[in-house]
Design a protein that fits this description.
- This protein is of the alpha+beta class and 188 residues long.
- The chain has one domain.
- Helix content is 19%, strand content 21%.
- It has a 4-stranded antiparallel sheet with strand order 2-1-3-9. It has a 3-stranded antiparallel sheet with strand order 6-8-7, covered by helices on one side. Strands 4-5 form a two-stranded antiparallel ribbon.
- A hairpin with a 4-residue loop joins strand 10 and strand 11.
- The longest helix is centred in the C-terminal third of the chain and has 13 residues.
């Protein structure tokens, strides 16, 4: 459970992962989900309906096609060849510090131009802050992420086809739910 002194409701929400995805993405979005990192698949939003809670990972931004060509020229469900070029969401994760310290940093990154959409508890030691970056152009998105990295965020999450923890999904290593800790404010 997260602490509530940071300006938002930090208690884990009882919200179905399907409801989360419906709030985050348009109906026709192509979403890439995975139970383990090596089995990522991209499919239309409706394909995943009712199955979301079984997944551990998601690419936070919709894909542009069901498959693309990876760097080796092979067809892949999750690669830069079918990743979006302009983000809806930038995920910021910290693998160090206490939960309270992570909440403080995530809260300080929240702004009118980068609103904090939700915080997902990884079911382990880290929090994933989901920031809505649609209002920012590519240079501004890069600057926002650089600021987060200066605060200690995982710099590998700039990768547009990187998997992150599925909101409300199941972490396989310890069977913990990856709880959502603040209300979702995004609507497409």
């Amino acid at each position: 459970m997260l602490h509530g002194r940071h300006g938002f409701d930090c208690n884990p929400l009882k919200i179905d992962p399907a409801e989360v995805l419906d709030k985050l993405y348009p109906e026709d979005a192509l979403l890439c989900l995975a139970t383990i990192k090596t089995d990522a698949r991209t499919a239309p939003r409706e394909h995943w309906r009712g199955k979301e809670a079984n997944f551990q990972f998601i690419v936070p931004n919709p894909m542009t096609a069901l498959t693309g060509l990876n760097q080796d020229g092979e067809v892949s469900h999750r690669c830069h060849g079918n990743a979006t070029t302009h983000r809806l969401y930038q995920i910021v994760e910290f693998d160090h510090g206490t939960v309270d310290e992570q909440i403080t940093i995530v809260t300080n990154l929240n702004s009118m131009f980068t609103p904090l959409t939700m915080v997902v508890n990884s079911g382990g030691k880290s929090l994933h802050g989901w920031f809505d970056v649609r209002q920012l152009d590519d240079a501004q998105q890069r600057e926002f992420f650089a600021k987060a990295c200066r605060c200690g965020a995982d710099n590998t999450l700039w990768d547009q086809c990187k998997l992150v923890r599925m909101p409300g999904g199941l972490r396989r290593s310890n069977s913990q739910r990856q709880s959502i800790s603040i209300s979702i404010h995004a609507t497409m």
